[in-house]
Structure formats: C-alpha cells, structure tokens
Specification:
116 residues, alpha+beta, Arc Repressor Mutant, subunit A, 3 strands, 54% helix, globular
Length: 116
C-alpha cells in the first residue's frame, strides 16, 4: 500500500495564488462550455463541438481548444486520413475537474436560492 499523498501547508496567500492559477486556466467565455460537453469521456470532432455550441465562432473554438491543449486539459487526436479527422477529449487531468466544477455549480445554485 502506497503512502497517502501529503498536501502542502498553504498560507492564505499561497492558497489564493494557487486558486488564481487554476481559474486562469479556465477563464474565457467558452472554456467551461467546452469542458461540460467533453465530460464523461466523450470524444468529439471539431464539427461536433461547433454544432453543440452554435454561438461560438470557428476561430474562437480553435483558440480555446488550443489553450486547453497547452494546459494539458484537452487532448487533440489527429487521424491521418483525407480529409483530416481531428477529435478532442479531456485528458485524465482535465476529467478530474468534473467533481470540482460540480461542487462549484451546487454552490452557485445555493447562492441563487439565497442559501447562506
């Protein structure tokens, strides 16, 4: 049996800085929408994402996917065929965001209901 992973001791400043870095990876109008479409192990082609998010431009979808790929949240899979087939899926690390975002969604719903 392995050693339990030990969490670092955070100060209020280091904790805030860490959360700011994480939020920075997710900021942008479309990143969360893309994430929610890919959760659950879904593998979607670029055109599937365009259809699923009709208000996003092709340029913006490309930019957001590239940034999430650079941050190791999304994996781009290129199939060598003509015409090229490109698919996207969440990395294991990207998929691990699901519980945190579910908790944030529950928190936001409670705030809307006026819960304190």
């Amino acid at each position: 049996m392995g050693k339990p992973e030990q969490r670092p001791d955070y100060t209020p400043m280091s904790a805030a800085a860490g959360v700011e870095r994480a939020i920075g990876m997710l900021e942008g109008r479309w990143k969360l929408v893309i994430l929610f479409h890919l959760f659950g192990g879904k593998v979607l082609r670029f055109s599937d994402l365009e259809r699923a998010i009709p208000d996003i431009s092709q340029k913006m979808l490309t930019q957001q996917l590239r940034r999430m790929e650079e941050d190791a949240i999304v994996q781009r899979i290129v199939h060598p065929q003509v015409p090229p087939k490109v698919e996207y899926r969440l990395t294991e690390w990207g998929q691990s965001l699901c519980p945190a975002l579910d908790a944030l969604l529950a928190w936001a719903e409670a705030a809307e209901r006026g819960a304190t």
